[in-house]
Each structure stands twice: as C-alpha cells, then as structure tokens.
Prior knowledge:
mainly alpha; 3 helices
Amino acid sequence: MESRGERTWCGQCGAxxxxxxxxxxxxxxxxxxxxxxxxxxxxVPTGLDYAGVRALLELWPDPAIDRPARFADxxxxxxxxLRIVHERLSREAxxxxxxxxxxxxxxx
Length: 108
C-alpha cells in the first residue's frame, strides 16, 4: 500500500482506508448483514447463509457483476470476520476464567 502512496489508517479516527477496487466486495459484505447464521445460546456466528447470499447476488443492481469473483471476495471477508470474532470470544473466555480463579492460582 505504501508503495502506492496510500496510508493504511486514517490519521484522525484509526479507521481502515478502503481501496476503490475493494468497494464492490465491501458493499456486498455489508448487504449480507442479515444473512449470518448463529449458533449456541450466545449467538456465535458460524458463517453466512449461502442461499441468502446467492439470492442477494441474483438481485444485485449491477448486472455486469462478476458473481464468482465477488463471491470469492465475500468468502475472504467472511473468514476474516469469523477469525476476529472467535479470537475475541476466546480472549474474553480466557479473561473470564482467569478472573474467577483465586489470586494464588493465577498465572503471572
């Protein structure tokens, strides 16, 4: 990115800058917000409902969209989303387990 003369982060708010070539994939990802499947009592996301994603792609306003490429982009975003969510949940579970142990049983 830096070789293209672009910054990785917004200097004021810390938000990731979105490259123009990634806008179509991100718009599809955001449009799929209602297509997530969840499991368990805590509602842990397990992935996107691909039947719903397919329906959304068929209704997409741009008929020239490269559906296979856009779907591959969406899967990349889905995997990263799941990785981040599960990593956060794992950290929270570890923190909760550590907090409930008596002080003399905690690891430094």
